[in-house]
Each structure stands twice: as structure tokens, then as C-alpha cells.
């Protein structure tokens, strides 16, 4: 369906909602532009999966779903020296990057994979982990059920997702309010749910989990270096990434408007009083 389709925006969204589960492919809103990978490669087990670490046995077998460039995956492998970690991602080129960056690691491997159809037998893993994955899916419940299928009885499904609606910042620049609203529009147009952090518990209950432990933690950016990094990657992401393409192709924003948003990010980053908080919902689901 091209952008020249004569339907109004409302009618187009209705058609997408009706057909998504049947014919629409999964769309990763951010894509894999350098500005996106700049963020992903910063992530470690310590700053992104601390809620899980106390539950990892040295000989655990772990599946990391949606592993991206594999920085968290590699850290998890270091936590299970007698075990093994497999990272999977739908993007072949990202898996190749992860393999190249971690060649020679004996208890770590990477493969392309589909969260809805994991290529592993039932009860294959002690822990199945997914970081910032569910918010980008069209059927989070189905994904959680498949993750549970490959987890052994007594094992854990561990997920963590940001909540865009809960993000807060200072100074309270109106342009960043505009950024958040049109990000939410684009992400939902791609079939995702950017308020995923607050919905993890509900999705897990619908998927049939009964032993669920919920928590939350934050990323906070306030130092000059952190502001420059966070504001800079979002300024670039706003005008150069797959998110930017989706925004313009979906007629949610013009290139000039995206430049305005990017300038807003730069202004926030340059402010000595700048502060940004990203809340993350976390969940450990024990498999019965």
C-alpha cells in the first residue's frame, strides 16, 4: 500500500489494524542505523539486566531473544562460565556483527531467529531473556508463550522494556513533547506498543504465567557526557534512521519537522541543567 493511496489516514489505520496479524510483517521501528546501534552497544548486563543477574546459575543455559549487536548477550555468557548463551535476532546483518565481535567465545553463539517460532525443542533453556523486544512486537502474548515453551520447568522468562509514556525530562521543552507524541504514533503504526514497560504484567498473565515478579529500574542521563551522547543519538535517529523514514513515509512528519525535533534534542543536550529519565518495566516469570 503506497503513500499515494487515496484513503484518509483514519481509514488506512483501520485497514492496518484489521490486516496486521495476517499479512503485515514485524517492523522494528528504530532500524539499525549507526545512531541506533550507538545506543545498543552501550548496553551491558549490569545496566540493562541487573534484575536477572542474581538468578543466573554458573551452568545455566540461556537464550537471549532480540540480542542486537550482542553486548548484553556476551556479558550474560560471562556470568555463566560453565553454561552457554545463545543470542538470536531477526536481522542477519546484526547477527553477523555480533559474531564478529565475539569470535572465539566458547560458551556463546549467535543465530537468526523468529520469536514466534523459536527453532529449539521444548524446555531447552534455563533462562529466556528479552531486552527491549516486546514493545516492538504485534503480538506480545504469543511471543511470551513461545518463550515459555522453550524454557524448562522451574526456569525463568525475563523481559525488560522501556515505557515512552513514562519518560520525563528537564527543561520541559515542548518540542520533546512533540517528539514523544509522534514517536508513539509511528511505533503504533508499525504495530508496536511504546508504553510496553507498564504492560508487561498484563501480557504475562494473558500468556498464562502465574508466578510473576515485577520490578522497575531507570536509565538517567544528566552529566555533560551523557547528555551529549543521548541527545546526539536521538537527534541523529530522528532524521537518519528507519524511524525517520517511517515518519515521513507514513506522512506523520515532514523532513523539516524532523529537523526541528532534532534541533530540540540538541538544545536539550546543550543545557547544563538537562536531565532525562527512561523508566523500564522488568519481569521474571517462573515456568511451572
What this model shows, in words?
With 288 residues, the chain is of the alpha/beta class. The protein is built from eleven helices and eight strands. It has helices at 9-23, 34-40, 45-48, 71-79, 92-101, 140-149, 174-189, 196-206, 224-240, 242-249, 255-270; strands at residues 61-65, 84-89, 108-112, 125-131, 151-162, 168-170, 211-221, 275-286. Strands 1, 2, 3, 4, 5, 6, 7 and 8 form an eight-stranded mixed β-sheet that branches. Strand 2, helix 5 (92-101) and strand 3 form a beta-alpha-beta unit. Helix 7 (174-189) packs across helix 11 (255-270) and helix 9 runs antiparallel to helix 11 (255-270).
DSSP helix count? 11
Strand content: 15-25%
Question: In total, how many beta strands?
Answer: 8
Topology order in helix (H) and strand (E) letters: HHHEHEHEEHEEHHEHHHE
How big is the Rg? 19 Å
> Percent of residues in helical segments?
40-55%
Structural class: alpha/beta
Average predicted confidence as pLDDT = 90
Low-confidence stretches: 1-24
Quick one: biggest sheet? 8 strands, mixed
Q: N- to C-terminal separation?
A: 44 Å
Shape category: globular
